[in-house]
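Quick note —
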Amino acid sequence: MHTDVVLLNLLVWMLGVSGQPRQRGTTLQAYRLVRSKREMPLMEGSSRRIGSSMLKRSPDITKAWGTKTEQLLSIDDQDFTMRPGFGGPAVPVGVDVQVESLDAISEVDMDFTMTLYLRHYWKDARLSFRSNKNQSMTFDSRLVKKIWVPDMFFVHSKKSFTHDTTTDNVMLRVYPDGKVLYSLRVTVTSMCSMDLSRFPLDTQTCSLEIESYAYTDDDLMLYWKEGNRSLNTDERISLSQFLIQEFHTTTKLAFYSSTGWYNRLYITFTLRRHIFFFLLQTYFPATLMVMLSWVSFWIDRRAVPARVPLGITTVLTMSTIITGVNASMPRVSYIKAVDIYLWVSFVFVFLSVIEYAAVNYLSTLQERKERKHRERLPCTCGLAHPDVMSASYSEVDANNTGSYSMPGENGIKRERMLVQLAMESDQITGHVGTSAYSNVWIDTHVIDKYSRVLFPASYILFNVIYWSIYC
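Predicted structure written out below.
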């Protein structure tokens, strides 16, 4: 019995020892709960003080933290697949453009490349929001995909793209009353129909055309926001071959038989080509080749190795110049101004070669006639001037046509003496047909002498007429 009482007391003591940590843990949890309750009012008070200070600095809800754009602009509550004011009058969309650069003009492809800032202005009441200070909100391209924007495209464009370095070059600015500014930076390559009939003394007019793709003039009205002042250009824009004379804007209506009428905006610019490059590369070399061909008129007609290569060289050089110019030009079916100049120059060079061919042929013909008459010449005894024929004739080779060792001031007088002597011999011997022979006789030196004057005079006259027409 005594033993049972001892064991029971021991068990009670052990239970008491094991229960002490629970009481401590319970006390610790109670302490933490009391502490957290004390700290919560402090934190709430501090957050209220922070929020009140932020509201004091910027009471505008557009600048408050924690407000989502979709909630502020009510994007999720609206259907932006439809245009603003659907079913009502057309939405007016103003446009202005700032041309950043005019990159290239290609005559071969007949196009131009331009980089510009394209800005759209319209009003969409669905995007209006409450703002105490009438402050706008600016967004990037991520919001553009969630709202309605005008579907502009470039008519007759071959390729175009929106710049995306380092991000998409797109800006969207929304005002509290629902007005929207949508701006993007675009590079476009567009067609330009060029008239090259006066090339390279030409002036070209190109246009960049902007139009809505889906909305006719009943749904969307495009207009230049401030007329001609809607188009701004960078003063540093320059081209190597062209002088930019002017930029201006126009607005027209375009009709498509299947869809209807559309508003179309035009950016028109006029370019005048610089002529100095073509003077150095085309006109001056062609003129020098023509003048070089005239040198053969002062070379002895018997110097075949000198005159023939000179003529061939000038002809081949002119052919190379013509080929080089046409290689960088489109294959148009009409004659250009540069073609007229080059081909007329080519004709002058070619005629100088033909002139020597005629001189050489007539010299050969003259040589044969003289050889025949030389065989028939009578004795010079009894002539008034027997010393005229004191020298003996020599055989004429192929490169020394018509050269005789007869005394006189020049070859022309010697040949004329020979003809006169031949005619007198016919009268002595009684031959008939001396008049026919005198008609065939041609002084080949006179052809070169006339060519020295006629060729330069004709070419100068051509240049005067050419430059007076095209300049």
